Amino acid sequence: MNAATTVPDAPPAPIRPPRLLGLYLLLIIVAAIETFEGLSNAPTLFGDMSTIPGPGLGGAIIKAYIASHPVLALAALVFATVGRLRYAIMSLGALVLMNWLNYMPSVVLHGLDFDGISAFQTPLQIVAFPLMAACAIALAARNERLGLATMLVSIPTLFNVAAVIAFGISVILYGF
Fold first, then answer.
1. Can you give the pTM of this predicted structure?
2. I need a surface site. Which of 23, 33, 39, 90 has the fewest CB within 10 A?
3. C-alpha to C-alpha distance for 96 and 94, rounded to whole angstroms
4. Tens of pLDDT, residues 128-146
5. CA of 113: how far to CAs of 118, 128, 129, 159, in Å?
6. pLDDT of 153-162, one tens digit each?
7. Cβ distance 152 to 135 under 8 Å?
């Protein structure tokens, strides 16, 4: 048989660079945390709908957030698990933007709260986190600086975990 007519063997499966394995692991952890949070809030949709505050558009936005949270988080978890880094980043970015949209009915009704710890937390959740998510989505869409994009979509979740841990420690130390 002529060597020019033979079909070459299929190339071996690509091996992920070691530096990307850390990004996949971080995205899996963040997506798992968000999935747990989204699934724990999902029963609200099947209960008494009057417990969801806000009639009209505000209530619809909150319901859309509660419904989309587990879907986006599970999508990010699946994408990160199967090795689709870009899509996992975009899913988590969309989740952060939905979280921001969830805050908007309260901001419109009550304004921005800058009392106590909210002076630090409110600007982050209303301004910084959505901008970070939009930048991460743009970077992932262009397949550029995926490490930075991973960090940008992970910071809001890690901030929330740190806030819960800090609250728990303060309750243990000072009581409720």
1. 0.80
2. 39
3. 5
4. 999 999 999 999 999 989 9
5. 6, 16, 16, 18
6. 999 999 999 9
7. yes
